[in-house]
Amino acid sequence: MNANAIFEGGGMRGIGIIGALSYFEQKGYTWNKVAGTSAGALIASLISAGYSSKNLKDMIINLNFLKFLDANKLQRFPLVGKAIGFVKEKGLYSGDYLEDWVNNLLTVKKIYSFGDLKSNGKGDLKIIASDITKRRILTLPDDLPSYGIDPDSFSISKAVRMSVSIPFYFKPVELKGKDGISYIVDGGICCNFPIDIFDEDTPPTIPTFGFKFNNINLGYTASGKTDPLSFLFDIADTMKSQQDAPWTQEENIKRTVFIPTLGVDPIEFNISKEKNIALFKSGYRSARDFLQKWNFETYIQKYYANFNTN
Prior knowledge:
Elements: E1 2-7, H1 15-26, E2 30-37, H2 39-49, H3 53-61, H4 80-89, E3 91-93, H5 96-108, H6 114-119, E4 125-131, E5 136-140, H7 156-164, E6 168-170, E7 173-177, E8 180-186, E9 208-214, H8 228-243, H9 250-253, E10 256-260, H10 273-293, H11 296-303, H12 305-308
Helix pairs in contact: 1-3, 1-10, 2-7, 5-7
């Protein structure tokens, strides 16, 4: 069955989504439109380019995520350089390695820009980022014309980098538009789980599934962390929890796979292979349990019956 998929941001927890996708694909699901935030945007971009969940598992399980923490030039000098680099670059790490890594994977599939997805007959892709200069959600590629930028020519790997740029951790991406420069950061600041992004005013002909992490997060400071980054991460998490209210509606809960995080931190870049595998299995089991109860026809009848009376 063909379906749409929405992936929540969750940093290093993303392997759980890949586990869930693995079960869906074993059951014959293929993906039409995909969207995501942060780590979910990374997964969405690779799925839209033609990678399967098995491909993603093979490349992620043994990956050294510490390579993503690439220092800016100034930060390569101990102590003083790191402090100066943080102030100058507005982030501890550049994000260059991550962007290049995504770009290399897309290049294998001969996909570079959003326009390439169209010309290659791939499904629709939407990536969520946050424009902190204009204080708005940035949906890529849809919102690019308002910046005077051709959406078809925009780099997908650049869009992914924007969406995963955790504030103060990775430096923001500068987007040069017709009105000047905007600083773009992690989409989770504005919308971490855009579950309704593909919804229309008519009953859908194919299902849209959400893939969301099921965890009770009391915040970094609740764990006794008092450093500035933990404080700022808690501010960001508080903001995005207010923005993500649509997913709490019953019709959205019913179409969402909730994946236990097993205590893995979103910025646990030194995650072990054992934890990676456990997260994958957690997502796989969650998808299995979900599909055992899921019925698209029942869903349509129960939650979209109002469209039939209009």
